[in-house]
Amino acid sequence: MPKYPNELLERLEKQANRNRQLIVDMIYHAGSGHPGGSLSAIDIITALYFHIMRHDPKNPRWEDRDRFVLSKGHAAPALYAALAESGYFPVEELRTLRKLGSRLQGHPDMHKTPGVEASTGSLGQGLSIAVGMAMAAKLDRKLYRVYCMLGDGELQEGAVWEAFMCGAHYKLDNLTVFIDRNQLQIDGPTERIMGIEPLEEKIKAFGWHVIQINGHSFREILAAVDEARETVGRPTAIIAHTIKGRGVSFMEGALRFHGKAPTKEEYELAMRELKEQAKAIEMKWAERNKKKSEDRGGEAE
User: Fold this and answer.
1) pLDDT, tens digit, for every residue of 124-173?
2) 69 phi and psi, to 5 degrees?
3) H helix or E strand, kind and range, residue 60
4) DSSP string covering 14-66, please?
5) What pLDDT band is residue 298 in, cutting at 50, 70 and 90?
6) Distances, alpha carbon 200 to alpha carbons 41, 203, 221, 240, in Å
7) d(Cα 106, Cα 99) in Å, to the nearest integer?
8) Comparing C-alpha atoms, which of 109, 141, 213, 226 is closest to residue 176?
9) Which end of the chain has fewer CB within 10 Å, C or N?
10) Rounded to an integer, what distance in angstroms lies between the CA atom of residue 10 and that of residue 67?
11) Beta strands 236-241; 175-181: pairing state
12) pLDDT value at position 290?
């Protein structure tokens, strides 16, 4: 696996923790929303917006920007946190989530929210939109790349597989799809509701390059995207194994937090946990950087 600078990994870990705090905060103040799938997706979205993608918050419609389509639109809080922290709109606006008159709807709305590329939430549609964007780039001879995130329960929609077929047929090697494989959907485990395995073999059979990763490891996320960029003649699907509710102990793997806001007590506990994690991240990287500095000093001697 390629090596990535400690400074980059540290920055992404800290940003992801900050984004998790914002997700929990905005859903609590909205009184509704989808914390589980937002928390499982946020590491990937953080990597995209804070390192991988070319984009400009001051010019959201920059013609050569990379595009991101959040097909699993119910995870909008994760996208909004990344957009706000990137500078598309004030962070303070996050607390208007799902409020009347807010630009931050329960599902992404490209006509209201700066930085949102596609209005999504009707599951099964986002990959088709992303395929169209990638085809447009090819036809216009543009170099921008298109990224799309699908939920694993969403793969039970037939239109997704038509889009997989189309992406391979047109050799869209500028298209990368992340599948948030947290194994839970609104009604229960995906394999009990409507099994999607063997997932890698299915997607490969449709002509895609497929990579499996730990969706909470920034090293693996970055390496997978680099591999996708080097893949020629076919699109890439990254099956990211994640944990629903990642980062909040009582939300992890808990089906009830698919679409439920935390109570006041749960909110306070979640924020306390995430702030403790922020301190742990700070200490971990301080120790690693100290050791790295000492090793360099030893080499110099």
Assistant:
1) 999 999 999 999 999 999 999 999 999 999 999 999 999 999 999 999 99
2) -115, 115
3) none
4) HHHHHHHHHHHHHHHHHT---HHHHHHHHHHHHHIIIIIS---TT-TT-TT--
5) low
6) 19, 5, 17, 11
7) 9
8) 226
9) C
10) 25
11) parallel
12) 84
Show the tokens assigned to 152.
């694993």
Bridge partners, residue 27, by sequence: none
Q: 206: which 2 tokens?
A: 């449709």
Question: Residue 149: is it exposed, middle or buried by C-beta count within 10 angstroms (0-12/13-18/19+)?
Answer: buried
What residue ranges do the domains of the chain occupy? 6-300
Question: Helix, strand, or coil here: 121?
Answer: coil
| pLDDT of 205 strictly over 60 | yes
Distance CA 7, CA 163 (A): 37
| Integer CA distances (angstroms), 160 to 50, 57, 180, 202, 206, in order | 28, 30, 14, 12, 11
Return the SS3 of 112.
coil
- pLDDT band at 241, cuts 50/70/90? very high
What's domain 6-300's architecture?
Answer: 3-Layer(aba) Sandwich (3.40)
DSSP string over 159-213: HHHHHHHHHHHTT-TTEEEEEEE-SEETTEEHHHHH---SHHHHHHHTT-EEEEE
Length of the chain in residues, anyone? 301
Number of H helices, E strands in the chain: 9, 7
Crossing angle of the two packed helices 35-47 and 76-86, in degrees rounded to 10? 40
Residue pair 102/96 in contact (Cβ under 8 Å)? The answer is yes
Given a contact cutoff of 8 angstroms between Cβ atoms, the answer to whether 237 and 179 are in contact is yes
Q: What are phi and psi of 10, to 5 degrees?
A: -65, -45
pTM (two decimals): 0.96
